[in-house]
Design brief:
The complex is a heterodimer of chains A (540) and B (109). Chain A is of the alpha/beta class and 540 residues long. Chain A has 3 domains: 136 residues, Rossmann fold (3-Layer(aba) Sandwich), CATH 3.40.50; 231 residues, 3-Layer(aba) Sandwich (Rossmann fold), CATH 3.40.50; 113 residues, ANL, C-terminal domain (GMP Synthetase, Chain A, domain 3). Chain A is built from 16 helices and 27 strands. Chain B has one domain: Non-ribosomal Peptide Synthetase Peptidyl Carrier Protein, Chain A (Orthogonal Bundle). Chain B has a 3-stranded antiparallel sheet, with no helix packed on it. The two termini of chain B are 22 Å apart. Classes of the chains: A alpha/beta (540), B alpha+beta (109). At the A-B interface, helix 8, helix 10 and helix 15 of A face helix 2 of B.
Chain lengths: 540, 109
């Protein structure tokens, strides 16, 4: 079922979906796009996007969903990024809206890339035989699709996943969550993100499980639509990033809850950013009176580089919660159990145990394995891992360690359960979305008034919102009046949101020599974050 | 108020009290008061900076000061504080990008 932003829910049968996907497959085939060709989908959250993605795969091509253009992004810059991606990755076709066709075609002139608009797709497929699908593909190591993070840095890292990896993931993860054809999955998640693409699209379609999809933009404005859809369709499974638990609890109004029954949900699975005990409690407190069961609280650890899930908590029981002495954790790197109300005790929520076919280990900076309860970097190995970063063997080699993928996430293992506590790399995760600080710093470095090369971006915890907030600290190139301060900060915020969609929680313009650099001249983001928290936390 | 009910005014909210029970609620909204309270909420809660010199025509969402998620919080705040229900579909960047626009929407009831 597809719930459009305006209008009635549309029911789509499997046969209708397949027929629609075939129209895209046919159209691509007619312009000479075939196996191994990259097809970039510049569309919004729509039925056409679903069909275009599946249609490209049916013909053996490699679809990649480009993040949606929103009202906050600068459209010229957005188009420029489309060109960069097409050029960089050698895409052979772009599928887009009729309104975009001309400008994208002109932008891509000189490149060997065809542009198809939705108007170019026939209304019915040339053939409807199920035999059209090349079944050998499903067993092959050929690339099924690419996943990208957003931003300049993210676009350079296309995660290439083979058909074999994707199907292995679906097989293992379906078992981990006891997926059956009596389930119904509800999702508002964007499809250019692994959680939305796999849990909220590829897995249910492949496994024949009914799926209810709604627009992420609609959900942000009106989070009640998800709960209403769960009520209406008796949905049993749903995935959310941590901040969404807070967003629902904070902004769904009492008037919208009357008569709602959430008892059909058997698992509401938290992943894509560190799971917070407080967020689960907020959600439970608000929605238990409407049938939401504590046993439906659930968590998993997932990433695009593993197609999706690496671990999953047992279904039917809330995740384990350990109270850990945070001082011992930070200084001795050991997760020592503590009484919940003892000084320095912090709750850590389990992300569960490794799913079939996956292995998880914790290593120190030298790559040496660490024992249970020792804090270190999480590394993973599985039969659903990436084939590599598309056309970036250098980045692929950097990320692998003896066949294991170095996740850059930090945490510990206890009795097979994985507990996540943050990032080793400087990546910021806001509302489940990866934000690369270097992208934000690059924007700041060209703002008039900012001392180029002396800007630093980092994330700070925001308990109220259940996610990280992004802070940017920049040294001023010269003394500035309060009015100039405000103008520079406003310029910074505006350019950052237009280029990355990131809303900065705080912008600080500081005197020269404030920003800490390493001895090799690199920005020391963690040290700068600590300095910021010490100096500005009471004011922030 | 000539029906024997005794009106009391608290923070611009007019409660009409009858037999010790609130039987009816009316709201007398004052534009300056709405602006001040909303500005206070935005600066303290959403911007984490009570001293931020927010101008009434400053673009909040398109200017990167707050994000779209905050609009849903503003909807809840308007209902809790001013008893004005703003339907979710009205909570868009086009309708609610500045403090002035938000106040206009709240004053429209």
């Amino acid at each position: 079922m597809f719930i459009p932003e305006d209008g009635e829910p549309q029911r789509i049968t499997a046969a209708q979906f397949y027929a629609s996907a075939l129209t895209f497959s046919t159209a691509l085939s007619e312009i000479g796009i075939g196996p191994g060709d990259l097809v970039v989908l510049v569309l919004n959250h729509s039925r056409a996007l679903l069909s275009a993605f599946w249609g490209a795969m049916l013909g053996g091509a490699i679809p990649s969903i480009f993040p949606f253009l929103t009202e906050k992004l600068d459209p010229d810059l957005y188009m420029q990024r489309v060109r960069t991606l097409v050029e960089y990755e050698g895409a052979k076709a772009v599928i887009t809206f009729p309104d975009f066709k001309e400008s994208i075609a002109s932008l891509l002139s000189g490149l060997d890339c065809r542009v198809l608009s939705l108007d170019d797709i026939p209304s019915s497929p040339a053939h409807l035989e199920l035999g059209t699908w090349n079944s050998e593909l499903s067993l092959s190591d050929s690339v099924a699709f690419l996943q990208h993070s957003s931003g300049t840095t993210g676009l350079q890292k296309g995660v290439a996943l083979s058909h074999r990896s994707v199907l292995n993931q679906i097989d293992s993860y379906s078992r981990a969550i006891n997926l059956t054809d009596t389930d119904v999955i509800a999702s508002w998640l964007p499809l250019y993100h692994d959680m939305g693409l796999i849990a909220g699209f590829v897995m249910p379609i492949s496994a024949g499980v009914p799926l209810v999809l709604m627009s992420p933009f609609h959900w942000v404005r009106s989070p009640k639509i998800l709960l209403q859809a769960i009520h209406d369709t008796r949905a049993t499974l749903c995935w959310l990033p941590n901040f969404a638990y807070n967003h629902c609890a904070l902004t769904i109004r009492q008037r919208d809850l009357e008569g709602l029954d959430l008892s059909s949900l058997r698992a509401l699975i938290n992943c894509s950013e560190p799971v917070r005990h407080h967020s689960h409690q907020l959600f439970l407190e608000k929605f238990a009176p409407y049938g939401f069961r504590e046993s439906a609280l659930s968590a998993c650890y997932a990433m695009a580089e593993n197609t999706f899930a690496v671990t999953q908590t047992p279904i039917g029981a809330p995740p384990r919660v350990e109270w850990i002495n945070i001082n011992a954790y930070q200084t001795d790197h050991v997760a020592k159990l503590a009484e919940p109300d003892s000084p320095g005790a912090m709750p850590f929520v389990s992300c569960g145990t490794a799913i079939d076919g996956a292995q998880v280990a914790i290593v120190d900076p030298a790559g040496k394995r660490l024992a249970d309860r020792r804090y270190g970097e999480i590394i993973i190995r599985s039969d659903s891992m990436l084939s590599g970063y598309y056309k970036r063997p250098d980045l692929t080699a950097e990320a692998l360690l003896d066949g294991y993928f170095r996740t850059g996430d930090m945490g510990y293992l206890a009795d097979g359960h994985l507990y996540l506590s943050g990032r080793h790399k400087d990546l910021i995760i806001v509302g489940g979305k990866n934000v690369y600080p270097q992208d934000l710093e690059a924007i700041a470095n060209v703002i008039p008034g900012v001392y180029a090369g002396r800007a630093v971006a980092f994330g700070v915890d925001d308990d109220r919102l259940g996610t990280e907030s992004v802070v940017l600290v920049c040294e001023l190139a010269h003394d500035a009046s309060p009015d100039e301060h405000k103008a520079i900060a406003a310029d910074l915020r505006k350019r950052v949101v237009q280029q990355t969609e990131v809303t900065l929680a705080d912008v600080r313009l500081v005197e020269k020599r404030w920003v800490i650099k390493t001895s090799s001249g690199k920005i020391a983001r963690a040290d700068n974050r600590d300095k910021y928290l010490r100096q500005f936390r009471s004011q922030a | 108020m000539d029906n024997g009910l005794k009106p009391i005014v608290e923070a611009n909210i007019l409660f009409v009290r009858h037999s010790q029970q609130i039987s009816h609620v009316e709201i007398a909204l004052n534009r300056n008061d709405v602006t001040d309270k909303l500005k206070d909420f935005i600066c303290k809660t959403l911007l984490n900076n009570a001293a931020y010199p927010l101008a009434v025509d400053e673009p909040l969402i398109s200017g990167g000061l707050i994000d779209s998620f905050s609009l849903a919080q503003i909807g809840v705040f308007a209902e809790d504080t001013f008893k004005v229900y703003i339907p979710d579909n009205d909570l868009t960047v086009a309708n609610m990008d500045t403090l002035d626009q938000m106040v206009n929407r709240i004053m429209a009831g």
